[in-house]
Here is the input.
Amino acid sequence: MVAVTLLYAVLLLERGLVLVSSTDPVAIALGLAILFFPFTAIAAIFFEIRFGMRLSRLARLLEQSQIAVPEYELLPSGKANKTSAEAVFRELEQRIQQDEQNYLLWFLLADSYDKLGDRKRARSAARTAISLAKKAQAL
Here is the structure.
């Protein structure tokens, strides 16, 4: 998917440059508008890959740590059983209240949100984990 998006961005960039080199003001305006999209796509890809790489580093740090990883009852689909995930979620909330600066607990909370199917809160908790890890100079 990244390769297809990058190919699309390169093709748009090329077309935008052709239009900008024109003498027609409408073509130049259209070319400038088209040039905006490849840079936006490349920036989005960069930020998503960086986000994923940081989460991978946090996962490795979690494996090396002494923090107990919660167990979930999984459904055949691979998602966690709601009752199981909610119990883990409550436990993690309590642990985070005791140690709010622990980026690994925030990472586990992000995983718990993900297993509950709440992607928005999962990403938010993951961003908090990354921010705390950077403050602790772990990333």
User: Anything to note?
Assistant: The chain has two domains: 2-54, 65-135.
